[in-house]
Amino acid sequence: MSSFCDPAGSFNYNRFLEYMRQFKTSEEREEAIKKAFTMLDKDGSGYIEWNEIKYILSTVPSATPSAPLSDEEAEAVIQSVDTDGDGRIDYREFSNMVKMEKKPKK
């Protein structure tokens, strides 16, 4: 079990970002990104698809209690990461998103 899962085995986005910050070399960070991508790509297709994206987005903690994202909100998030427009997140897009991620303000 990786350190960015909670005890129930769910993906914890903030814990993942903290985990990513500990790496000093790009090789270590790249390996951690690969492991996270593999974990999130639940069906092993090589892409994080709509249903997997909805799951991830529903587990990302926010500063205020909120309902799960609507389809329109989830679509906007996907479009911001999905640079090739195919409606799913490939490894390169996921890696780019992680590397650009900033810690959310509290």
Protein architecture, described:
With 106 residues, the chain is mainly alpha-helical. 52% of the residues lie in helices and 4% in strands. The chain contains 5 helices and 2 strands. The chain has helices spanning 13-21, 26-40, 50-59, 71-81, 91-100, and strands at 47-48, 89-90. Strands 1-2 form a two-stranded antiparallel sheet. The relative contact order is 0.16. The model has no long low-confidence stretch (mean pLDDT 75). Belongs to the parvalbumin family. Residues 28-63, 69-104 form the EF-hand domain. This is Parvalbumin.
Secondary-structure map:
Blueprint: H1 13-21, H2 26-40, E1 47-48, H3 50-59, H4 71-81, E2 89-90, H5 91-100
Antiparallel strand pairs: 1-2
Helix pairs in contact: 1-2, 2-5
Family: Belongs to the parvalbumin family.
Function: In muscle, parvalbumin is thought to be involved in relaxation after contraction. It binds two calcium ions.
GO molecular function: calcium ion binding
